[in-house]
Design goal:
CATH class of the domain at 2-112: Mainly Alpha
Helix content: over 70%
Pfam families: Sigma70_r4_2
Radius of gyration: 20 Å
Order of helices and strands: HHHHHHHHHH
Number of strands: 0
Largest sheet: none
Domain RNA polymerase sigma factor 70 region 4 type: 130-180
Distance between the termini: 44 Å
CATH superfamily of the domain at 2-112: RNA polymerase sigma factor, region 2, helix turn helix motif
Protein name: Sigma-70 family RNA polymerase sigma factor
CATH topology of the domain at 2-112: Rna Polymerase Sigma Factor, Chain: A
Family: Belongs to the sigma-70 factor family. ECF subfamily.
Shape: globular
Keywords: Sigma factor, Transcription, Transcription regulation
Strand content: under 5%
Length: 185
């Protein structure tokens, strides 16, 4: 059933079903992304209990606020950003060892609430769409160089090898692409 559901619905459609209160869609989202989110969380903490708690809290929050969050074209990206923020907030909150009294807790508490972060995510998604539109206007080789550098996080030498061009050409492609994005932003 899960494979059938995931193959029949795009991320946008699955997200909309979830936002409209479809519990099966929500369970499908959790089923599809829990493992990768958990693995991602291990980059920030080896405490599996903390990671599980953060995931649980994030999914509960999403379910409770589902009607107030914006749509997305990439559920995985939305969840990764949300989870990263949630786990960093939790790590910041628990950065001190031992018990923290109420007055100290105010000093340790993050400035930004989890709800504020979801507003930030929605704004960031609009910016991401604009960036994608601008990137689509770039020549193919500049797009490829940008992707390899900033999405695959490859160094200039590796990009040169992958694209079968010299290092200076990679630098030129990146420089031109970034200038174009700055000018049109």
């Amino acid at each position: 059933m899960n494979a059938l559901l995931s193959s029949n619905f795009s991320d946008e459609a699955l997200w909309e079903r979830f936002k409209n209160g479809d519990r099966i869609a929500f369970e499908q989202i959790i089923s599809l992304h829990y493992s990768s989110l958990f693995r991602f969380g291990t980059r920030y903490s080896k405490d599996t209990g903390l990671i599980q708690d953060c995931l649980h809290d994030m999914f509960v929050y999403l379910w409770e606020r589902r009607s107030h969050i914006s749509g997305t074209d990439s559920i995985k990206k939305y969840l990764l950003k949300s989870f990263r923020h949630k786990i960093l907030l939790e790590l910041q909150r628990t950065q001190r060892r031992g018990w923290v009294d109420e007055e100290e807790a105010i000093d340790v508490a993050p400035d930004q609430s989890f709800e504020d972060f979801f507003v930030f995510i929605e704004t960031e998604q609009l910016s991401a769409k604009k960036i994608k539109t601008l990137i689509d206007l770039l020549p193919q080789r500049q797009q490829e160089a940008l992707h390899l550098r900033y999405f695959e996080e490859l160094d200039i030498e590796t990009i040169a090898q992958v694209m079968n061009i010299n290092r200076q050409s990679v630098s030129n492609h990146l420089h031109k692409a970034l200038n174009f994005l700055r000018e049109h932003w």
